[in-house]
């Protein structure tokens, strides 16, 4: 990959596929039950990807599409029932879903998009590995996902200036490291009046990136969310993640006056109070604290005090904290060494590929050329297959039933 100031766009493929699927018109029978449904889905996938590629025009020079495998977490921590709350949707024709998504993957490969998949690794793991490898090679990253867990990967490499930012299209938010806005509004000296000096200047490249990012943020009315990722990670360990079936570090169930049982855990506010007290004692946070027994015991003790925890033993709380670290923190200390080695080995090879054919990704027609889907006759509203470069339509990540939620 060339070090030219542009970013690598790393797309959460699983997120993209399902969010697009669930905004399609509801059929009378199964979702993707007919050939026409499959054609509509393929064209919508192509339309939505092309829109995003145009959105980042000038900012990216390569595209990575991550694909989930069965997670190592289910095998290493079977008692945790990781993602055990997720059941296959019986209204979807899964054979047809696989056929369309496999064909879409083949189309992406022909356009030079890097397909990233490793047995045992989830998309989250792959995005962690791509971020680590890109930043070490002075290559900045834009993550495209609606999964808030990945905010923990937002970062700036202080040694070479490369960074990772996350774009969540659900609310048009750009999650960044602290200090991003100050960097964005800085203009560096280009190093002279000679045009050739300017073109060669690293400052000139960085100024161009700032300008393009500013245009993207202003034109699309994107909110910048500067995040303390260490605090974010500590809070996640304490609160758990109901979407992945990961319980809080401490919880209890009570029967209310109406006779119904309610479960209470560590709220965001309580988690912040625990983290604040931990910081008062230990100073600035370090992710390494989450892998140190002494610090974890102290975190547990503060939790017990803040939560007035009397429904769970201190030993159980400490075990829960450690489990949550292993299940949710994306780090070389949590991901099995064999999977880490395989991810980095494959990424090192793929980074040597030629850059993606971005021009071939900018419209549905270019993406689907020479396929049966290019000229398929489909009776659909223009809104569903909108391919207007000036459109503000983010419909592919909006679902009326889940409006306001991140997938």
Helix-strand layout with pairing:
Blueprint lengths: L6 E6 H9 L13 H21 L4 E7 L5 H5 L17 H17 L3 E3 L6 H14 L4 E4 L10 E2 L6 E6 L4 E5 L2 H5 L10 H6 L1 H18 L3 E5 L1 H11 L12 E4 L5 E4 L3 H15 L10 H15 L6 H15 L8 H14 L13 H5 L39
Parallel strand pairs: 1-2, 1-4, 2-3, 4-6, 7-8
Antiparallel strand pairs: 5-6, 6-7, 9-10
Q: What would your notes on this structure say?
A:
The structure is a single chain. The protein is built from 14 helices and ten strands. With 407 residues, the chain is α/β, with parallel strands linked by helices. The strands form two sheets. Strands 1, 2, 3, 4, 5, 6, 7 and 8 form an eight-stranded mixed β-sheet that branches. A hairpin with a 5-residue loop joins strand 9 and strand 10 (261-264). Helix 1 (13-21) crosses helix 2 and helix 10 (268-282) crosses helix 11. The longest helix has 21 residues, at 35-55. The protein is globular, with a radius of gyration of 23 Å. It starts with 6 loop residues before the first strand and ends in a 39-residue tail after the last helix. 33% of the residues are buried. The model is unreliable at 195-202 and 387-407 (pLDDT under 50).
């Amino acid at each position: 990959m060339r070090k030219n100031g542009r970013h690598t766009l790393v797309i959460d493929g699983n997120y993209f596929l399902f969010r697009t699927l669930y905004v399609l018109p509801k059929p009378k029978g199964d979702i993707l039950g007919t050939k026409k449904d499959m054609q509509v889905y393929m064209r919508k996938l192509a339309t939505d990807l092309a829109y995003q590629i145009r959105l980042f025009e000038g900012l990216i020079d390569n595209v990575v599409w991550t694909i989930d495998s069965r997670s190592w977490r289910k095998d290493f921590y079977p008692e945790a029932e990781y993602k055990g709350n997720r059941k296959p949707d019986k209204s979807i024709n899964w054979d047809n879903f696989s056929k369309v998504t496999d064909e879409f993957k083949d189309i992406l490969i022909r356009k030079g998009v890097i397909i990233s998949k490793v047995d045992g690794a989830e998309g989250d793991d792959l995005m962690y590995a791509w971020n680590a490898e890109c930043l070490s090679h002075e290559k900045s990253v834009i993550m495209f996902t609606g999964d808030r867990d990945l905010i923990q990967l937002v970062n700036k490499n202080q040694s070479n200036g490369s960074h990772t930012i996350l774009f969540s299209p659900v609310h048009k938010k750009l999650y960044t490291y602290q200090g991003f806005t100050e960097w964005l509004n800085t203009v560096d000296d280009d190093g002279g009046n000679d045009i050739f000096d300017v073109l060669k200047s690293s400052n000139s490249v960085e100024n161009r990136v700032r300008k393009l990012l500013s245009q993207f943020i202003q034109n699309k009315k994107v909110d910048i969310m500067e995040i303390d990722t260490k605090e974010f990670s500590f809070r996640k360990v304490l609160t758990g993640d109901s979407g992945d079936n990961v319980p809080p570090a401490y919880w209890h169930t009570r029967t209310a006056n109406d006779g119904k049982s309610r479960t209470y855990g560590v709220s965001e506010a309580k988690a912040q109070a625990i983290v604040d007290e931990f910081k008062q004692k230990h100073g600035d946070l370090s992710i390494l604290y989450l892998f140190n027994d002494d610090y974890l015991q102290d975190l547990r003790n503060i939790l017990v005090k803040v939560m007035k925890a009397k429904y769970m033993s201190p030993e159980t709380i400490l075990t829960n904290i450690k489990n949550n670290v292993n299940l949710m923190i994306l780090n070389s200390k949590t991901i099995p060494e064999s999977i880490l080695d395989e991810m980095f080995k494959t990424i090192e090879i793929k980074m040597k590929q030629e850059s993606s054919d971005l021009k071939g990704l900018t419209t549905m027609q270019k993406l689907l050329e020479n396929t049966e889907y290019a000229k398929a006759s489909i009776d659909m509203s223009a809104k569903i297959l909108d391919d207007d470069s000036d459109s503000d339509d983010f419909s592919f990540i909006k679902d009326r039933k889940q409006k306001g939620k991140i997938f």
